[in-house]
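Handout, section 3.2

Students often ask what a structure token actually looks like in practice. Rather than define it abstractly, here is a full record for Polygalacturonase inhibitor 1. The first block is the sequence as you would receive it.
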Amino acid sequence: MNNSNFVSFSFFCFLFLSQTFLSFSATERCNPNDKKVLLQIKKALNNPYQLASWDPKTDCCNWYVVECDPNTNRIVTFNLFSANISAQIPAAIGDLPYLQTLVFRKLTNLTGPIPPAIAKLSNLKLLRLSYTNLSGTVPTFFTQLKNLTFLDLSFNDLTGSIPPELSLLQNLDALHLDRNKLTGNIPESFGKFTGKVPDLYLSHNKLTGSVPKNLGHLNFTVLDFSRNTLVGDISFLFGTNKTIQIVDFSRNMFEFDLSNVKFPDSLTSLDLNHNKITGSLPQDLRKLNLQYLNVSYNKLCGQIPTGGKLQTFDISSYFHNKCLCGAPLPACN
Ligand SMILES: *[C@@H]1O[C@H](CO)[C@@H](O)[C@H](O)[C@H]1NC(C)=O
Ligand SMILES: *[C@@H]1O[C@H](CO)[C@@H](O)[C@H](O)[C@H]1NC(C)=O
Ligand SMILES: *[C@@H]1O[C@H](CO)[C@@H](O)[C@H](O)[C@H]1NC(C)=O
Ligand SMILES: *[C@@H]1O[C@H](CO)[C@@H](O)[C@H](O)[C@H]1NC(C)=O
Ligand SMILES: *[C@@H]1O[C@H](CO)[C@@H](O)[C@H](O)[C@H]1NC(C)=O
Ligand SMILES: *[C@@H]1O[C@H](CO)[C@@H](O)[C@H](O)[C@H]1NC(C)=O
Ligand SMILES: *[C@@H]1O[C@H](CO)[C@@H](O)[C@H](O)[C@H]1NC(C)=O
């Protein structure tokens, strides 16, 4: 190879290499800040197997567990599910400013509190921290996440009371606080959701007291208060005016007369089992298109109205009452 040939060969090599390099960086969609933060998160989670695809040499938009927005190329989804992770939620998660969906689910060795850094994620719409061993209280900083439509903190070890401020979340479709160790009352403010009226899942906690009367002013669709120690009359949550569809008030200490309660046409599922409900089953129950009914283990009396869906339910929907009778239970005397 003579000198001039060597020069042109080298030039060719340079061109080829720079082309390759340019095309490589042109296809790398990942935002460098997002990549840096994700690698910090990976380290804080002790480099779990589930994040093995998070190789700094590759495009983070191709990594498992996360997703980039196709237009902005920023990380918008972080969904970590069923992994063997023994760590706390890394504060670095708050440095993914475009995040809309954040899920940590079925990570039983994920412990510690819900980090305040999450409050920085102002674009967050869906937050699910569920089936983990998170402890501490339900933070009030969630109210800063104005766009939140879905908040799920179920199946954790959260303690303390329910923050009344959660009613300030105007776009909330559903609030899952079930299966924790929450104490205190259902906040009065839950009768004053200023925007949407969310489905409320508060079951399997240690909630006490009576349900605030002003919850009767809102049109809820789903109310699940089961397995707490709530007391008193909740008949104000019914009424012909309402739009409620699914009700689970089972395994509490509710005490009221069912005889004159008016149920709305919208009701499809009614579970009142294990309370101290008295009176008889209203005739109007026959008019409902019920898919589920359970009034067992109460203090009800009298004949089960005949017709509608009421005889399609099993004995176990009615058994263990004071003197309820008629099909499917034994005939009345
Ligand atoms: C949780 O941690 C314990 C103790 O380190 C370990 O034995 C167990 O396998 C872990 N479980 C999961 C699902 O990660
Ligand atoms: C989880 O990880 C721990 C420690 O790294 C290990 O001892 C355990 O066997 C793992 N558990 C499962 C279910 O993989
Ligand atoms: C996580 O929670 C499960 C079930 O509540 C419990 O058995 C386990 O000991 C907890 N693990 C840790 C590491 O706290
Ligand atoms: C909430 O969402 C709207 C529209 O999706 C967006 O314009 C707004 O910036 C978001 N708010 C915050 C605080 O991110
Ligand atoms: C609840 O819904 C009913 C039926 O759609 C409606 O008549 C009533 O005004 C609503 N109440 C409230 C407080 O929105
Ligand atoms: C039904 O709702 C309207 C408007 O919210 C209210 O004025 C009316 O008193 C309610 N009727 C009953 C029977 O609750
Ligand atoms: C009704 O609730 C009781 C008590 O929890 C239960 O034993 C029974 O199986 C339930 N019936 C139906 C139809 O779900």
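Discussion prompt for tutorial groups: The two ends are 114 Å apart (CA to CA). How would you have guessed this from the sequence alone?
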